[in-house]
Every structure is written in C-alpha cells, then in structure tokens.
Design goal:
- The chain is an alpha/beta fold and 343 residues long.
- 50% of the residues lie in helices and 9% in strands.
- It has 2 domains: 55 residues; 226 residues, no CATH class.
- It contains 11 helices and 7 strands.
- Strands 3-2-1-4-5-6-7 form a 7-stranded mixed beta sheet, with helices on both faces.
- The protein is elongated, with a radius of gyration of 32 Å.
- It starts with a helix and ends in a 37-residue tail after the last strand.
- The C terminus is likely disordered.
- This is Copper transporter MctB.
- InterPro entries: MctB.
Length: 343
Amino acid sequence: MIDFRYHIVSLISVFLALAVGIALGAGPLKETIGDTLTGQVELLRAEKDGLRTELETSQARLANSSSWIGAAGPQLVDGTLEGRRVAVVQLGEIDAERAAAIDSALTEAGATLTAHVTVTDVWTDEELRSMRRALAGTFVQYLDPAPADDAQDETILAQALAQGLTGASPTSPDTLSESASTLLDLLDEGDQALIAVTEPVVTAADAVVVVSPYDEGAAATGTPGGEEPETTTSAQLAILEAAHERSEGAVLADAPRDAATLTNAVLADPELADRLTTVTGTDQAPGQISVALALNARIGGTTDHYGFGEEQTVLPQPVVLPPVDRTPTSVAPTDPNAAGNGG
C-alpha cells in the first residue's frame, strides 16, 4: 500500500510540475523568454552583418591594393631585363590569364620572349618510360656539355629541353644552333611528343622562366588539390635545374605557397635551395612582378626565394645588368666552291 501511494504521489508531482511550467511559459515568463530569444537572434544577425561588412571592406581594400600594384608594375620592372631573351616553359596546362600576366611582366621589364613550351603528360607517364629511355640515349650525342655517365633519363631529357631553348649558334648568336634545333624537333615529334611548342623557336634564349601549374579552381573553392606523385615532382625539378645550369638564369614561377609543391620541394632540400630561385603566388600581381625582378636578380648572381611565407623574401632587389655579348665565337666555314669558276 505504501509503495502504491508513493507512486501515486510521484506521478502527481510530475504532472503538477508540468502544469506549473506550462502556466509560467504561457503566462508571466512568456514575454521574458520570447524577448530573450528575440534579442539573441537580433544580436547574432547584427554580428553576421558586421562580419559581412568587414569582409567586403577587406576584399575591396585587397582589390584596390592589387590594382595599384598592377598599375605600378611596369614602373617597378622597367628596364630590369632590357636586351634579355627569355623562354617560358610551362610544366603543364596553365591558366591563360596567369600565363599572360607573367608574359606581360617580362616584356614590360624589357625582355623578348623567344619561346613558349608546354611539357606534356608524356614526360612523366609511367607507361612510356621505355620510350623516354630510348630518346635519352639519342639525345646524349647532341648535348654539350655531355651529361654525366650516370645521369638519369629525366636529367638528360631536361638538359635536352634547356639546350634546345638556349643553345645559340656560335657563328650566328641570334639563331639556334643546329643541335638545339634538332633537340627541340625530337622533343616535339610524333603523337607522343614530350613538349608542345606554340610557335617555331628560332632564337636562343638567355634565361628561362619555368611556370608550375596548379588547380586554380580548387584553390578558389578551398578544395584541396591532389599532390603530384614523387616521380613527377622529381622530373619537374630536373627541368628547373637544367634551365638554371644551361642559361644565364632561371626562375620558378609557382603557385600560392600552400599549393606550391615545387617550391616546398626546393626549400626542403638545402642544396637545391642554395642554387635555385623560386617565386610563389604568381596568380596575383605581386608574384607576377616578382618573377621579372627575381630573374633580374638571378642573372645578376643572387639566388633567393620570394613570397610571403617562411624562408621567403618579400621583394627581389633589382640590379643593373651588363649588356649581353652576342659576338660570334667562331666564323662560319666558307665554301671553296663559292668563288666564281671562270673559264
């Protein structure tokens, strides 16, 4: 009986508490609770509007700063590459707007663009390794200086590309040497060409800009892009190294730092970091201008890494470069039969 009464009392207490809660919620506390919730919602809405305004203001300031830098770019780079001939090597498909902006920075600096070359997927396709090995064996006879006896295939291919773009004729420095032309023809030959050339290359370059691709669409949406396989990164670094070794100077025009696979790979290797020059953020005006200034500094003997991240310098310091000496280093042989054969 006691247990039954205890349960009855407990049930009555529960229902009484519910009734009191309902009564208070519908009566004296209704307005207080409603006002509190309404105030919190309005506060959150105001905070959201404030954050949106701050974001829009920041974006407008950033756009204005970028516009100012872009407008000042020609003055910043003017004359820094005067008389230099530059080849542009794209390590894959590059956003057209970014590519054009890098070209503009170089030409505004006074450079003449001698070549636009895009490295195709054939360069790193694992299934075509044997084909590349055969080509590397063919290329060795045209390379001067010759590669090391133990040079990897990717190194030989990279040196062939660099010499093909920078190899000047000793008798006519304004034109490509015969071996350089042959190397480019072999690289651009057939259905499985290793490179795609925009226009025929007829003039040797003094320096090279290597442009690294990245997924601009993924970066804009915050979607992480896939990392390059180690073999691809190694092959791309070989191209950058060969361009450095076989020219007056080479610069890597890379993606924003958080997506800059090649720059991160260079900085992770102290030996490479001491020899190669990189620029990140070349999707924006500051990076594009830095490419021209960095190439000037590299030709002048300074190696550094430019950008806004750790281990990077914000702005390259330009130097006055000496004029390019294009004096022929040898004389073309004369044809003994060229003279008149009079009676």
